[in-house]
Amino acid sequence: MTVDDTGSGADGDGRVDPEPAPDSADPGEDPLALRLEGLILGAERRYTPFQAARSAGVSMELASRFWRAMGFADIGQAKALTEADVLALRRLAGLVEAGLLSEAMAVQVARSTGQTTARLAEWQIDSFLEGLTEPPEPGMTRTEVTYPIVELLLPELQEFLVYVWRRQLAASAGRVIQAGDDEEMVDRRLAVGFADLVGFTRLTRRMEEEELGELVEAFETTSADLVAARGGRLVKTLGDEVLYAADDAGTAAEIALLLVETMAHDETMPELRVGIAFGTVTTRMGDVFGTTVNLASRLTSIAPKDAVLVDTAFAEELIRTRDAPASEAAAAEEAAAAEKAGEEPPVYRFALQPMWQRSDLGLGVVEPWLLTRRDGGGES
Protein backbone atom coordinates (compact mmCIF):
# COMPACT_ATOMS: atom_id res chain seq x y z
CA MET A 1 0.00 0.00 0.00
CA THR A 2 1.01 3.62 -0.38
CA VAL A 3 2.11 5.56 2.70
CA ASP A 4 0.25 8.85 3.05
CA ASP A 5 -0.71 11.36 5.76
CA THR A 6 -3.26 8.99 7.23
CA GLY A 7 -0.64 6.45 8.28
CA SER A 8 0.27 2.99 7.03
CA GLY A 9 -1.25 -0.40 6.96
CA ALA A 10 -0.19 -3.86 8.04
CA ASP A 11 -1.03 -7.31 6.86
CA GLY A 12 -2.61 -10.02 8.94
CA ASP A 13 0.52 -10.84 10.95
CA GLY A 14 1.07 -7.21 11.97
CA ARG A 15 4.04 -6.56 9.71
CA VAL A 16 4.07 -3.28 7.80
CA ASP A 17 3.66 -3.44 4.05
CA PRO A 18 6.24 -1.01 2.64
CA GLU A 19 5.29 1.53 0.00
CA PRO A 20 5.64 0.12 -3.50
CA ALA A 21 8.48 1.43 -5.61
CA PRO A 22 7.51 4.42 -7.77
CA ASP A 23 6.74 3.81 -11.44
CA SER A 24 9.65 6.06 -12.43
CA ALA A 25 12.21 3.80 -10.76
CA ASP A 26 15.28 2.80 -12.69
CA PRO A 27 15.18 -0.96 -13.35
CA GLY A 28 18.71 -1.22 -11.92
CA GLU A 29 17.79 0.32 -8.57
CA ASP A 30 16.99 -1.70 -5.48
CA PRO A 31 13.19 -1.61 -5.03
CA LEU A 32 13.52 -1.93 -1.25
CA ALA A 33 15.81 1.10 -1.12
CA LEU A 34 13.31 3.02 -3.23
CA ARG A 35 10.49 2.13 -0.85
CA LEU A 36 12.52 3.44 2.05
CA GLU A 37 13.35 6.60 0.10
CA GLY A 38 9.65 7.15 -0.59
CA LEU A 39 8.86 6.77 3.09
CA ILE A 40 11.53 9.26 4.18
CA LEU A 41 10.81 11.84 1.49
CA GLY A 42 7.08 11.45 1.81
CA ALA A 43 6.53 11.90 -1.92
CA GLU A 44 6.98 10.07 -5.17
CA ARG A 45 9.54 10.82 -7.85
CA ARG A 46 7.84 13.07 -10.39
CA TYR A 47 10.34 15.47 -11.93
CA THR A 48 13.59 15.57 -13.83
CA PRO A 49 15.92 18.39 -12.69
CA PHE A 50 14.85 20.48 -15.68
CA GLN A 51 11.15 19.93 -14.92
CA ALA A 52 11.68 20.75 -11.23
CA ALA A 53 13.53 23.97 -12.04
CA ARG A 54 10.81 25.01 -14.51
CA SER A 55 8.04 24.23 -12.00
CA ALA A 56 9.86 26.28 -9.36
CA GLY A 57 10.27 29.17 -11.75
CA VAL A 58 14.07 29.28 -11.56
CA SER A 59 16.77 28.83 -14.16
CA MET A 60 18.42 25.44 -14.51
CA GLU A 61 21.77 27.10 -13.74
CA LEU A 62 20.55 28.49 -10.41
CA ALA A 63 18.81 25.24 -9.51
CA SER A 64 22.05 23.33 -10.14
CA ARG A 65 23.97 25.76 -7.92
CA PHE A 66 21.49 25.24 -5.09
CA TRP A 67 21.49 21.46 -5.43
CA ARG A 68 25.26 21.19 -5.55
CA ALA A 69 25.55 23.50 -2.55
CA MET A 70 23.21 21.20 -0.64
CA GLY A 71 25.51 18.29 -1.49
CA PHE A 72 23.30 16.48 -3.99
CA ALA A 73 24.97 14.56 -6.80
CA ASP A 74 24.34 15.36 -10.44
CA ILE A 75 21.71 12.97 -11.80
CA GLY A 76 21.51 14.11 -15.39
CA GLN A 77 17.85 14.31 -16.39
CA ALA A 78 16.62 11.28 -14.48
CA LYS A 79 13.10 11.55 -13.03
CA ALA A 80 14.19 11.47 -9.37
CA LEU A 81 12.89 14.69 -7.79
CA THR A 82 9.73 15.28 -5.81
CA GLU A 83 7.32 18.09 -5.05
CA ALA A 84 9.43 18.88 -1.97
CA ASP A 85 12.45 19.56 -4.21
CA VAL A 86 10.38 22.01 -6.23
CA LEU A 87 9.14 23.74 -3.07
CA ALA A 88 12.67 24.06 -1.67
CA LEU A 89 13.88 25.67 -4.90
CA ARG A 90 10.90 28.01 -4.90
CA ARG A 91 11.56 29.07 -1.30
CA LEU A 92 15.26 29.80 -1.83
CA ALA A 93 14.60 31.68 -5.05
CA GLY A 94 11.75 33.57 -3.37
CA LEU A 95 14.09 34.80 -0.62
CA VAL A 96 16.43 36.15 -3.31
CA GLU A 97 13.61 37.75 -5.31
CA ALA A 98 12.25 39.42 -2.16
CA GLY A 99 15.65 40.91 -1.43
CA LEU A 100 15.97 39.11 1.90
CA LEU A 101 19.03 37.18 0.70
CA SER A 102 21.51 37.78 -2.07
CA GLU A 103 22.02 34.91 -4.48
CA ALA A 104 25.45 34.25 -2.96
CA MET A 105 23.98 34.19 0.55
CA ALA A 106 21.23 31.79 -0.54
CA VAL A 107 23.89 29.44 -1.88
CA GLN A 108 25.73 29.70 1.46
CA VAL A 109 22.52 28.86 3.31
CA ALA A 110 22.10 25.82 1.10
CA ARG A 111 25.72 24.75 1.58
CA SER A 112 25.84 25.16 5.35
CA THR A 113 22.53 23.33 5.79
CA GLY A 114 23.58 20.55 3.44
CA GLN A 115 26.94 19.98 5.09
CA THR A 116 25.51 19.96 8.60
CA THR A 117 22.58 17.67 7.87
CA ALA A 118 24.69 15.32 5.71
CA ARG A 119 26.93 14.59 8.67
CA LEU A 120 23.93 14.18 10.95
CA ALA A 121 22.24 11.78 8.52
CA GLU A 122 25.41 9.68 8.14
CA TRP A 123 25.76 9.42 11.90
CA GLN A 124 22.13 8.46 12.38
CA ILE A 125 22.28 5.71 9.78
CA ASP A 126 25.71 4.38 10.83
CA SER A 127 25.27 4.52 14.58
CA PHE A 128 21.59 4.79 15.32
CA LEU A 129 19.68 2.60 12.91
CA GLU A 130 22.39 -0.08 12.85
CA GLY A 131 21.73 -0.86 16.49
CA LEU A 132 17.96 -0.97 16.04
CA THR A 133 17.57 -3.01 12.91
CA GLU A 134 18.90 -6.41 13.89
CA PRO A 135 16.27 -8.85 12.58
CA PRO A 136 14.30 -10.18 15.56
CA GLU A 137 13.23 -13.32 13.71
CA PRO A 138 15.06 -15.71 11.36
CA GLY A 139 14.26 -15.04 7.75
CA MET A 140 13.53 -11.32 8.19
CA THR A 141 15.72 -8.91 6.27
CA ARG A 142 17.23 -5.77 7.72
CA THR A 143 15.13 -3.66 5.34
CA GLU A 144 11.92 -5.28 6.58
CA VAL A 145 12.87 -4.23 10.11
CA THR A 146 14.17 -0.80 9.11
CA TYR A 147 11.01 0.35 7.34
CA PRO A 148 8.59 0.32 10.30
CA ILE A 149 11.25 1.71 12.65
CA VAL A 150 11.93 4.64 10.35
CA GLU A 151 8.19 5.15 9.96
CA LEU A 152 7.82 5.49 13.73
CA LEU A 153 10.97 7.54 14.38
CA LEU A 154 10.88 9.96 11.46
CA PRO A 155 8.29 12.45 12.77
CA GLU A 156 9.81 12.45 16.25
CA LEU A 157 13.36 12.99 14.98
CA GLN A 158 12.14 15.75 12.66
CA GLU A 159 10.47 17.62 15.51
CA PHE A 160 13.54 17.17 17.72
CA LEU A 161 15.84 18.47 14.97
CA VAL A 162 13.75 21.62 14.57
CA TYR A 163 13.69 22.14 18.36
CA VAL A 164 17.49 21.90 18.71
CA TRP A 165 18.01 24.14 15.68
CA ARG A 166 15.73 26.83 17.11
CA ARG A 167 17.53 26.67 20.46
CA GLN A 168 20.94 26.97 18.83
CA LEU A 169 19.70 29.78 16.57
CA ALA A 170 18.38 31.71 19.58
CA ALA A 171 21.69 31.32 21.42
CA SER A 172 23.73 32.39 18.41
CA ALA A 173 21.48 35.37 17.71
CA GLY A 174 21.82 36.45 21.33
CA ARG A 175 25.62 36.42 21.10
CA VAL A 176 25.58 38.48 17.91
CA ILE A 177 23.20 41.08 19.33
CA GLN A 178 25.44 41.48 22.36
CA ALA A 179 28.42 42.27 20.10
CA GLY A 180 29.88 45.71 20.63
CA ASP A 181 29.50 46.98 17.08
CA ASP A 182 28.64 45.92 13.55
CA GLU A 183 32.23 44.91 12.73
CA GLU A 184 32.38 42.65 15.77
CA MET A 185 29.42 40.67 14.43
CA VAL A 186 31.66 39.32 11.66
CA ASP A 187 35.19 39.71 13.03
CA ARG A 188 34.89 38.95 16.75
CA ARG A 189 37.37 38.72 19.60
CA LEU A 190 37.19 35.21 20.98
CA ALA A 191 39.26 32.68 22.86
CA VAL A 192 39.95 29.72 20.57
CA GLY A 193 41.24 26.41 21.87
CA PHE A 194 42.48 23.18 20.30
CA ALA A 195 42.63 19.95 22.31
CA ASP A 196 44.68 17.17 20.74
CA LEU A 197 45.23 13.53 21.71
CA VAL A 198 48.97 12.78 21.90
CA GLY A 199 50.31 9.89 19.81
CA PHE A 200 47.03 9.22 18.02
CA THR A 201 48.74 8.19 14.78
CA ARG A 202 50.65 5.45 16.62
CA LEU A 203 47.42 4.29 18.21
CA THR A 204 45.78 3.82 14.81
CA ARG A 205 48.45 1.24 13.96
CA ARG A 206 48.01 -0.76 17.16
CA MET A 207 44.28 -0.69 17.87
CA GLU A 208 41.49 -2.55 16.15
CA GLU A 209 39.11 -0.37 14.13
CA GLU A 210 36.17 -0.88 16.48
CA GLU A 211 38.30 -0.12 19.54
CA LEU A 212 39.71 2.99 17.88
CA GLY A 213 36.23 4.15 16.94
CA GLU A 214 35.06 3.76 20.54
CA LEU A 215 38.04 5.79 21.80
CA VAL A 216 37.36 8.63 19.34
CA GLU A 217 33.66 8.64 20.18
CA ALA A 218 34.42 8.77 23.92
CA PHE A 219 36.88 11.64 23.40
CA GLU A 220 34.48 13.64 21.25
CA THR A 221 31.52 13.02 23.56
CA THR A 222 33.43 13.95 26.72
CA SER A 223 34.89 17.06 25.08
CA ALA A 224 31.53 18.19 23.71
CA ASP A 225 29.85 17.76 27.10
CA LEU A 226 32.56 19.68 28.96
CA VAL A 227 32.67 22.51 26.44
CA ALA A 228 28.88 22.94 26.44
CA ALA A 229 28.52 22.66 30.22
CA ARG A 230 31.07 25.42 30.81
CA GLY A 231 29.54 27.83 28.32
CA GLY A 232 31.87 27.32 25.38
CA ARG A 233 30.98 26.32 21.82
CA LEU A 234 32.28 23.23 20.10
CA VAL A 235 33.25 24.40 16.61
CA LYS A 236 34.24 21.02 15.16
CA THR A 237 35.80 17.66 15.89
CA LEU A 238 38.57 16.09 13.83
CA GLY A 239 38.82 12.60 15.31
CA ASP A 240 41.82 13.10 17.59
CA GLU A 241 41.31 16.86 17.92
CA VAL A 242 38.54 19.24 18.94
CA LEU A 243 38.26 22.96 18.29
CA TYR A 244 36.21 25.10 20.64
CA ALA A 245 35.62 28.80 21.23
CA ALA A 246 34.51 30.94 24.15
CA ASP A 247 33.58 34.58 24.54
CA ASP A 248 35.94 35.15 27.45
CA ALA A 249 39.37 33.87 28.45
CA GLY A 250 38.29 32.58 31.86
CA THR A 251 35.73 30.22 30.33
CA ALA A 252 38.22 28.94 27.75
CA ALA A 253 40.86 28.37 30.45
CA GLU A 254 38.46 26.44 32.67
CA ILE A 255 37.41 24.23 29.75
CA ALA A 256 41.03 23.50 28.80
CA LEU A 257 42.08 22.48 32.30
CA LEU A 258 38.94 20.39 32.80
CA LEU A 259 39.65 18.55 29.54
CA VAL A 260 43.20 17.71 30.64
CA GLU A 261 42.08 16.69 34.13
CA THR A 262 39.18 14.56 32.90
CA MET A 263 41.22 12.71 30.27
CA ALA A 264 44.06 12.16 32.75
CA HIS A 265 41.67 10.26 35.02
CA ASP A 266 40.62 7.95 32.18
CA GLU A 267 43.15 5.15 31.80
CA THR A 268 41.90 4.31 28.31
CA MET A 269 42.73 7.78 26.99
CA PRO A 270 46.10 8.99 25.70
CA GLU A 271 47.61 12.15 27.10
CA LEU A 272 46.07 15.44 26.00
CA ARG A 273 47.59 18.77 25.07
CA VAL A 274 45.74 22.05 24.63
CA GLY A 275 46.62 25.37 23.00
CA ILE A 276 44.56 28.55 23.36
CA ALA A 277 44.85 31.98 21.74
CA PHE A 278 42.79 35.14 22.18
CA GLY A 279 42.06 37.67 19.48
CA THR A 280 40.04 38.56 16.42
CA VAL A 281 38.60 35.68 14.42
CA THR A 282 36.46 35.51 11.32
CA THR A 283 33.39 33.30 11.63
CA ARG A 284 31.95 31.68 8.54
CA MET A 285 29.43 28.84 8.18
CA GLY A 286 29.90 27.91 11.83
CA ASP A 287 33.69 27.68 11.54
CA VAL A 288 36.39 30.10 12.70
CA PHE A 289 39.38 31.37 10.74
CA GLY A 290 42.31 33.71 11.11
CA THR A 291 45.68 34.19 12.75
CA THR A 292 44.23 33.59 16.22
CA VAL A 293 43.06 30.12 15.16
CA ASN A 294 46.41 29.34 13.52
CA LEU A 295 48.23 30.45 16.67
CA ALA A 296 46.08 28.22 18.88
CA SER A 297 46.84 25.27 16.59
CA ARG A 298 50.57 26.04 16.74
CA LEU A 299 50.52 26.26 20.54
CA THR A 300 48.80 22.87 20.68
CA SER A 301 51.51 21.28 18.56
CA ILE A 302 54.29 22.45 20.95
CA ALA A 303 52.41 21.95 24.24
CA PRO A 304 53.79 19.36 26.69
CA LYS A 305 51.69 16.30 27.45
CA ASP A 306 48.73 16.93 29.77
CA ALA A 307 49.42 20.67 29.69
CA VAL A 308 47.84 23.88 28.39
CA LEU A 309 49.77 26.59 26.53
CA VAL A 310 48.27 30.03 25.86
CA ASP A 311 49.45 33.06 23.91
CA THR A 312 50.40 36.46 25.33
CA ALA A 313 47.07 38.07 24.42
CA PHE A 314 45.22 35.32 26.28
CA ALA A 315 47.49 35.70 29.32
CA GLU A 316 46.96 39.46 29.33
CA GLU A 317 43.19 38.95 29.13
CA LEU A 318 43.24 36.62 32.17
CA ILE A 319 45.28 39.22 34.06
CA ARG A 320 42.93 42.03 33.01
CA THR A 321 39.85 40.13 34.24
CA ARG A 322 41.73 39.21 37.45
CA ASP A 323 41.42 35.50 36.78
CA ALA A 324 45.20 35.23 37.06
CA PRO A 325 47.89 37.39 38.71
CA ALA A 326 50.50 39.15 36.60
CA SER A 327 53.09 37.11 38.51
CA GLU A 328 53.39 35.21 41.75
CA ALA A 329 55.46 38.08 43.14
CA ALA A 330 52.65 40.52 42.36
CA ALA A 331 50.13 38.15 43.96
CA ALA A 332 52.25 37.94 47.10
CA GLU A 333 52.48 41.75 47.31
CA GLU A 334 48.72 42.07 46.92
CA ALA A 335 48.13 39.45 49.62
CA ALA A 336 50.51 41.23 52.02
CA ALA A 337 48.84 44.60 51.38
CA ALA A 338 45.38 43.11 51.93
CA GLU A 339 46.47 41.46 55.17
CA LYS A 340 47.94 44.73 56.41
CA ALA A 341 44.69 46.51 55.63
CA GLY A 342 42.65 43.79 57.31
CA GLU A 343 41.03 42.78 54.01
CA GLU A 344 40.61 39.49 52.19
CA PRO A 345 43.38 38.91 49.65
CA PRO A 346 42.34 38.51 46.01
CA VAL A 347 41.63 34.94 44.93
CA TYR A 348 42.89 33.95 41.50
CA ARG A 349 41.70 30.85 39.67
CA PHE A 350 44.68 30.40 37.37
CA ALA A 351 48.44 30.76 37.30
CA LEU A 352 50.58 31.74 34.32
CA GLN A 353 54.21 30.84 33.75
CA PRO A 354 56.13 32.32 30.81
CA MET A 355 57.79 29.69 28.64
CA TRP A 356 60.44 29.70 25.94
CA GLN A 357 59.95 31.83 22.85
CA ARG A 358 59.82 30.23 19.43
CA SER A 359 60.05 31.58 15.92
CA ASP A 360 57.37 30.46 13.50
CA LEU A 361 57.68 31.05 9.77
CA GLY A 362 54.05 32.09 9.38
CA LEU A 363 53.32 33.58 12.81
CA GLY A 364 56.55 35.30 13.78
CA VAL A 365 57.74 34.99 17.38
CA VAL A 366 55.43 32.80 19.47
CA GLU A 367 55.49 33.55 23.20
CA PRO A 368 53.70 30.74 25.06
CA TRP A 369 52.58 30.76 28.67
CA LEU A 370 51.89 27.63 30.70
CA LEU A 371 48.40 27.75 32.20
CA THR A 372 47.68 25.89 35.46
CA ARG A 373 45.28 26.10 38.35
CA ARG A 374 46.47 28.27 41.16
CA ASP A 375 46.65 26.83 44.63
CA GLY A 376 43.49 27.87 46.44
CA GLY A 377 41.89 29.10 43.23
CA GLY A 378 39.73 26.04 42.83
CA GLU A 379 37.31 25.18 40.08
CA SER A 380 34.71 27.81 39.28
Automatic annotation (TrEMBL):
Pfam families: Guanylate_cyc (PF00211). Residues 191-300 form the Guanylate cyclase domain. PROSITE patterns: GUANYLATE_CYCLASE_2. SMART domains: CYCc. GO terms for biological process: cAMP biosynthetic process; intracellular signal transduction. PANTHER family: ADENYLATE CYCLASE, TERMINAL-DIFFERENTIATION SPECIFIC-RELATED (PTHR43081), PH-SENSITIVE ADENYLATE CYCLASE RV1264 (PTHR43081:SF19). This is Putative adenylate cyclase. It comes from Streptomyces lividans 1326.
